[in-house]
Amino acid sequence: ASTGHRADMPQTLAAIASSNRTIAAIFVVAFLVAIFPFAESMILHYPDERHYSQGAALMMESGDYLTPRTGEDEVRLKKPPFAYWMSVAGMEIFGIGVIGSRIFWLLGAAAILFVTYRMAKRLTGDDEIALFSLAMLAGNFVFLRSAVTAIPDIPLTLFMLIALYGFAGLLFADEEDRWDAWLAYGGTAMAILTKGIPALAPPACVFGLVIVFPSCRRHLRRLVAPLPNLFSAVLAGWWFVYQVLRSSSALDNQFVGDQVRSKLEFSVLAVLDSVGLSLAGLLLPLIGWLFVIGATAISTRRLPDVRRLGASALLLSGWIALNIAMFAPAIKPDHRYIIPSL
Asked: CA triplet 306, 178, 122: central angle to 5 degrees?
């Protein structure tokens, strides 16, 4: 009987895992259904959203999909074009309007939920923790607000998360997966095409950990992947090369000015304000969940054990710290900059 019981265990565990994946899929679909009515309303509008909706409409009208323009038909190169292309794709399907401009942001938010589930499962090996992570994010008001706003936050977060998922596999997985390098470097390249320099944060975090912590060097050779590295470099850089050849002064004044020079003119008070907003955006939505975790730990006498994460705890904590520091010199501090850490 004991032997038979042990033989049934893999089937039972597989059934539980399959059930949890089904629950996760249902959760993601329910999220889309619940958030859709807010996406089709202009009541939830962010000022910068006009740049991407108007820019996308102008791309469709002019046929020039490589050079974003303002509503006044002036070149706007503060951000790379991917966020504009998302709106273009939606408008091609649903027409020029609110839902056309935002539909792929909803789908991107749903994809973030799915990859969050997979990321938590990869780091902990626990389906229930992965489901819990998905639920925490799906109910987070900072994330919900961004899911219905056509600005670069959602695609940037999605591609950064894909990159971190790949890097987590390269650093910590027992068995090498050839797709991890493609996800790590390809995700970084797509994030660069979405927002530029901030997208370099995932590899910066990973290589920083490798340099500082010996426990992160166990699979160091996996980080060297010539074909994914080359392909991703080309993918990330081709648009910038095009603009250097076509509009180098605009690229320097707008892109470099916005992402480099303006960050060097920060004040101490602005940095403190930005860090405070980032911490608030990170911690305030979690107060209820932290209470649930604490109450459960007390009632079951089981304390959460961070040691289960091993060296991957360094990746998570390092990523949060880097994310906060990266946006600290922002000219206009905003709690939404913490979304990649959420």
From this structure: 20
